[in-house]
Amino acid sequence: MDTTQLLKGVLDLAVLAVLRDQDGYGYDVVRRLRSRGLDDIGDASVYGTLRRLFAGGHLTSYVVPSEEGPHRKYYGLNSAGRALLEENSKTWRQFADIMTGLLEPDRGATR
Prior knowledge:
This protein is an alpha+beta fold. It has one domain (4-109): Arc Repressor Mutant, subunit A. It is built from five helices and three strands, in the order H-E-H-H-E-E-H-H. It has helices at residues 4-19, 26-35, 43-55, 79-103, 105-109, and strands spanning 24-25, 59-64, 72-77. Strand 2 (59-64) and strand 3 (72-77) form a beta hairpin. The two termini are 28 Å apart. The mean pLDDT is 91.
């Protein structure tokens, strides 16, 4: 199954989830997503998502000087981002339960 469309629908949630416990800069977020199994995630998609979530008021940002190259722009969750993560997590779990019920008819029939 091509997961490209699925990933587009949950990228905000995935980015918020990896920033939940630790701030990160763009490539760090990409690397964390890949290490958690989202191997096909595109750098540009993550960078765009970070910019959009920041513009929407869900992330804070700050710049940290780097001795290894250009300064790095870090992103972190603010209270609006944490609320969005909670809301989207609830929606995801409900959707996943519905899909599981469809894919496992015995489980869905008991509801």
